[in-house]
Each structure stands twice: as C-alpha cells, then as structure tokens.
From TrEMBL, chains A, B:
Region annotated Disordered, chain positions: 366-385
Domain DprA winged helix: from-to ranges: 313-367
Domain of life: Bacteria
InterPro entries per the UniProt record, alphabetical: DprA, DprA_WH, DrpA_SLOG
Pfam families registered for this protein in UniProt: DNA_processg_A (PF02481), WHD_DprA (PF17782)
Family the UniProt entry places it in: Belongs to the DprA/Smf family.
Species per Swiss-Prot/TrEMBL record: Amycolatopsis bartoniae
Protein name (database record): DNA processing protein DprA
Taxon lineage: Bacteria, Bacillati, Actinomycetota, Actinomycetes, Pseudonocardiales
SUPFAM superfamilies assigned to the protein according to its UniProt record, in alphabetical order: MCP/YpsA-like
UniProt domain Smf/DprA SLOG: residue ranges: 76-298
BP GO annotations: DNA-mediated transformation
NCBIfam families to which the protein is assigned, alphabetical: dprA
Amino acid sequence: MSLDEERRARAYLLRVAEPPAAALVAFVSERGPIAAAAAVRSGNCPQRVIDETVARRDQERAEADLEAGNGMGARLIIPEDDEWPAWPLLCLEVAQQRGIQSGTAPLALWARGDARLDEAADGAVAIVGARAASVYGEQVAGEFAYGLAERDLTIVSGAAYGIDGAAHRGALAAKGVTVALLGCSLEAGYPAGHVGLLNAIAERGGLVLSEYPPGTPPARHRFLVRNRLIAALSEGTVVVEAGRRSGARNTATTAGALGKIVMAVPGPIGSATSAGCHELIRNSAATLVASVDDVVEIVGKLGTDPPERLQTRRPTDGLDGDALRIHEALERRQGKSPEQIAAESGVSLPRVRAVLPVLEMEGLAERDETGWHQPRKLRATKESA
Amino acid sequence: MSLDEERRARAYLLRVAEPPAAALVAFVSERGPIAAAAAVRSGNCPQRVIDETVARRDQERAEADLEAGNGMGARLIIPEDDEWPAWPLLCLEVAQQRGIQSGTAPLALWARGDARLDEAADGAVAIVGARAASVYGEQVAGEFAYGLAERDLTIVSGAAYGIDGAAHRGALAAKGVTVALLGCSLEAGYPAGHVGLLNAIAERGGLVLSEYPPGTPPARHRFLVRNRLIAALSEGTVVVEAGRRSGARNTATTAGALGKIVMAVPGPIGSATSAGCHELIRNSAATLVASVDDVVEIVGKLGTDPPERLQTRRPTDGLDGDALRIHEALERRQGKSPEQIAAESGVSLPRVRAVLPVLEMEGLAERDETGWHQPRKLRATKESA
C-alpha cells in the first residue's frame, strides 16, 4: 500500500464520482482508497456508492490524469499526505455525521503552487462576495485581504470576478499566501480574465485547488459544491458584498453550518450588493466587521492568546466519535500499533491511520518506537485550526 | 386643587430645580405638586430635595413664566393634563425604581404647537445622529423620517444640525407629525440656524418641547439630560450616524436602559460617522435597519398585528410595583374612590390619582358613577407605547 497506489486510487475515484459523493466518501473512509477503488470498479459495493459511481466507473484515467497534472505543474494531494489539512477538513466529517448536506470531505485535491496545503490552511480567513461588486466592495476586499495577509493569515477565496479577485490580489500585494478554490479543473482557464491571477497565485507562494479532474468545465452546481471547501479550509468567512440571493451567502450559510465564524461587512443601505450582508447581520447569521482589526479580534490570531472560551475547553472537546474512540484506546505509557488501536476502538484501520496524525497535530497523540500513545502532558487545543 | 394651581406649582418647581431632579420628582410624586411646592419653598422637605432646590427656591417666577409662555404661544403640559403622555413616560419611573441614572420623569413640559402630546407620542420613532453628518447620513435620515411619517408614525428628534434636522425636515415633507426636544428653553433660539425649522414644526402639526423654563440657555449637560425624553417618548430609537463617542450613542444607550428598541443604520466602513452605529450593531446594543420597512417591522406598526411576543404577554406585565398594587386593589363589580384605593393598596393618594388614568389608557381600569373598577374584559396591552 504505497502512497503512489493510494494516489492512483483516489485519482480514479475523483474521476468517477461527481463531488460531493457522500456515500463514496464514507465508503473510502471505511475501506481505504485502494480497496474502495477496487470495489467501485467491480460494482461490489453498497447501492448508494454504485449510484454515485456507475455512470463513470469505467473511466480508467488515473494515470493519465496524474500525468496531465504533472505536465502543468500540478499535484494531487491526498489524505495520506503529510500536507493534507486533516484538522480543518474534520469539520466536514462532523457535519456529515450530523446529517448536514454540505458536509462531505473531498477525496483528494488537485493543487498548483509550492505552498504546503496544511501550512496554508493554518490560520486562514475566507473573503468572499459578489461578482458584480461595487467599487466600495472591491476596495474593502482588497484592503481586508492586504491587512490580514500582513498579519500572516492566509486569504482563501473562489477566484471569481469582483470581491474574490480583489481579495486574492490584495493578499498578493502584501506578499501573503492566498488559496483559490475552483469550481472547475485547474487547467480549465476559468474565469478567463483571471488566468493571469491564478498563475500569479500558484507562482507566488499560494495554491490553486480543485476537486475536479482535468477537463472538467465550470458549472453553477460546482461553484456551490466548491463553497464548502472555502468555508472548511478557513477559520472564518468574511462576506464583503452579497446580494440577497447569492453564492457568497451560500458560502456564509455553509460556513455557519460547519461551525465556522461568519462575518459580514456593512455598506451603504441603498447598495443592492450590501443587502445580503445586512440581512446576515440582522438575522445574527454573521457578525458585523468594519476593519481588519475586527476580523483579527474575532478569528483570533494564531500566536496570540486564544479567546477565553477556547482556553477553558477540554482538549478532546470537538473530537468526533471515531477520533474520541481512538483517543480513548491510547494509553500514556504503552505504545500501540494502528492495528491494535483499530481492534480496541472498533474503528476501521484506514480510519485509525487517517485520524492518528490529526490527533498528533493537536497534541492528543504521540508516537515513538513503541507505537502510538497519549502524550505525557495534555495541552489545550485550538478550536478548528 | 385646580389644574391652574397644579400648573403654577409645577412651573415653580421646573424653575427651581435643574433636571433631572430625582429626589424632587419622587417627592412630587408622593405629595402632589402643590404640597411639594409649598414644602420646597419653606425648606420643610427631605435633605435630598433641599439639595436639589435650595439654590433657586426663592425664584418665584411661576406666573411670569406662564405669561411668557402664553406670549409666545407656548403652554406648560403637566401630568394632571389629559394630554400628558403618562404611558410612554412610565418607563422613566420604572427605570428610576431600578436605580438607572437616566430614569427621572419630567415634572412638566413646556410645549409649542397644536398637537396633543399624548397623541403625538402614540406611535413615535426617534431618529437621532451626528451633527457633523455625511451627505449619506442626512439622506438616510430624511428618507427614513419621510417614510415613517407616511406610515403615520411621529418622528421625535433633538433639533440639532445634521441628522436631527434632516429627520424633522423629512417628517415635515411628508406632512407628518414631528416632535423636537430641546436642551434649552423654547425661546432660546438654538441652534440659530434651526429657528425657522422649529417654527415650522410648531406651526405644522408638530410639537417643540422642553423641560427648561424661559431664559435657559443651551448646555452640553442639558442635551444629555434631554436625551432621556427623546428615548422615552418613542417606541424605538434609530441611530442614523454616530461617532464612537457621541450624543447619539448616549441616546441609544439611554433608550436601551429604558427598555426601548434601539436600531442603527450601517454605512460605509471607512466613514467615521458610521463607526458608532457599527459598534452598536456589533455589540448587539442595536439592531441593524437598512430600510423604512425594517424599522416598521421592528417597532411594530400601530394598527397592524402586534408581534407574537406582545400577544402572549399578560395585560399587567410591565406595570411597576405601585401600578400593580393599585390594579390589584380594584374590583370588577364594585367601583372605588381614589381614597379607598389608596387605603387598600398602601400607595399614596396623589400617586393613585396619577396612575389610575394610565391604567385606564391601557384598558386595565375603568370608571363609572360608582368609582374606579377593573374592566369586565381584559385586553392585551401594548408593550411600552
């Protein structure tokens, strides 16, 4: 079970199922990618997984996709990689267990750019908003992105015209890290006017990301599906301008459903592009932010004191069921192998393998020559970073 | 004890104490104005009342003040008058009993204009904000006042330059009722540039009001003291523009302390005159309003269905201790005299006399030839109108 095999398996799975494929994702989480891919190919899997994969399961393009990616300087980041942002994305699994529509983790992510994804997602804020933004909105997006990037926060957005583009450009102007999530494949060149911007993001320390295999055109439903990743990869989402019914409001709603912080910028009351922001604020679905400092205060800057609320949390608060069972199977003195932990916790081996590094990142597990064990001294965890 | 005597007594008391004179107001509430005025003159009253009145108690100008008022078409409205807005102002007494600084009822109010004060205050919204307002702020204030006046709501404000003036003018433009509360006497001609506006308010169906006897110049502390009356006479206060520390924020804070609805209008985040509004909204001290409809929805238009919250209130909810005791002393079948009610409730006779009309207005008491009694059928009350 080499990383290469797992990568090929996940490239195949990304190709044959249209995200979000909730049943498939759960199936892969249970069986691991290689066994899951084999089962999908043969049709020897639960009906719901068959439903999600039957239309494309004969498309054996994993090698070709990986080569195509290579050819344009892209890579496929998989959960088995060190740089996989397991902790930020855990909110999706929690949401899925709670039956929330938008809560399906990605099977893998196509990426352009040299930044490590886990590092880029460590202290990230999403800035989203209307494509048909006002001058005011674009200025605010640019200024917020610039100011937050200066404070070493990553700016996550969707590469659309208007607010998204202004946010990416603001981060680049501050020589900060910015991450673009696409609703099409990396080479699709969409939106056309932002091809240069996407190149700049990839070349200047940021990342361009997509769930979609090469050759996938943009589509409205893909932008909505993509929005959950913008929300999940960020600690909070700032809506700069949004109409009453807009994609940006969808991202805000998703972020709220995922337990992330939602913020909105007010504007002149006559402006239609601020109407969605005002509604979010009035309905208490978003907190009003009027400055970069407001955002930093609300998100809580990494490296500064965490808010009191977090300091008093128990380290294992926020762990989902599997993670908690795995954590409880660990002992302080005696190390255990993943196989032992799987047997004792009743959690599948691939899932144990996926969760242990997350627990390690959070300081809830350590490994040495004897195997995995609980750390000698627990430390407080970050909430969702 | 004619109304004339009571009016002279209150004119005297307004002259000799600088509002808010909490001890004096309580003393008058207990003794009635005539006895209280006599006690103040002779110094035969509690020390706290002496402290509030000793500096000016020799100023016997009641007759002269009433004549001066007459000469300029003004009248002194006293709590014993039918048009006294007893119910809106009751929030001040409740606040005073709870020890809130800004909760002191006025002893009387000097008034110019033909409107009945009780009718003007029935369905009123305050619109307040910065004197150094932006073009945006003045436009919003004017539009809100116009739209609310069109819906037969009274616009209450403070006659200052900027937002206040725009609000009064907007109401006048809609041929609506607008009420100006001054921080100086009626004839003081302040602010100088608004003398024409104040005349128009008085002449075109509105009211110009002041606690201050003729000859009182404007002063910063008087504007702050006056703010409680703006808040009390309105069902809700809309802050259109306000700096971080401003008189408008003071009015908003006072309105909140008095249990009134506080609303704030957002604006561009770069605008210093919106910073106070944004703070109020972010701190949940105010609800964001972006349109006239928002205000109407929040305040609840008289004549339309009250919000559910109000429908389920018990009729006597919100009554203060005295009012509740008086209400409980009433019977359904048998009428009682105020003297009987005072004896049974243990509440002083002048207070019983003052509260009974309030209960009557609220449909919680009725009178016929047998005296005061509880109505046969209770109806739901408005919250604080």
